[in-house]
Amino acid sequence: MRVLALFLILSATIAGEPPRPEPRMSFLDNGTLKIGADLALGGAITWLSHRERPDNLINSHDLGRQIQMSHYSGPVPFQPQGTTLKPEWRTIGWNPIQTGDVFGHPSRVLEHRNDGRELYVKCVPMHWPLDNVPGECVFESWTTLDGPTVTMRFRATNARPDQTRYQARNQELPAVYVISALHRFMSYTGERPFTGGDLTHVTNDFRKPWPWTEQICTESWAALVGDDDWGVGVASGDICVFHGGLFGKAGSHDVRDSTTTYLAPVRKEGT
User: Fold this and answer.
1) Nearest Cα to 56, choosing from 253, 266, 261, 259?
2) pTM of the prediction?
3) Are 64 and 176 in contact (CB under 8 A)?
4) Quick check: bond before 77 cis, omega within 30?
5) What is the Cα–Cα distance from 227 to 263, expressed in whole angstroms?
6) Average pLDDT, the chain
């Protein structure tokens, strides 16, 4: 089976949440790909399209989707004095993310540059499980285009006053959420990488408490594709472990739908 992919090298609405701000988009377009960062949402990537398929592929149902940085550490739970923690996320611990928090408060962009060749964003992320609590860190991203390939580079600079050395945890490098029409998680998972072997359709059960599959992808890439084998591929250096799968019913092209497909190369690192 062939997979034709654009490569990235690399729920219910909450009652009472603030209205989502109007998009402030910064785009790169090389005639083949168009990619857009929303400066109203921490500069997270909320748009990706191909000239032959101009509709947006990125899911933005809530502020935990998009293509974005997301990092984890202890303690678990993480709830500074005087803050509000969403109970269902208490087991996630310290988790600043680029777009915003589960209560709907967006991250704040500190700096942005776009010269038509490179898109740079620096932001103060929000702690996903907490109500309007900025992270003690800054996130930076650099994005360029080359034909059908997006290259993204990320950096997190930590300034936590807590100097405890917590156990290393899986970091999403980055998290990628797309429309559920691209519902199949495909990769090579065999023992003879780069020999032209058959690909594997990796499945998951999103009804379980942990909805995603963890899969070793021995060629260090994976893709989310539709029934025609076209979609978005993700590669991240020498990382071979990917989390991913389908959430909800396959087939939606609506970027605000609760159904989505997810993929992230992950590696255990301390913060």
Assistant:
1) 253
2) 0.93
3) no
4) yes
5) 17
6) 94
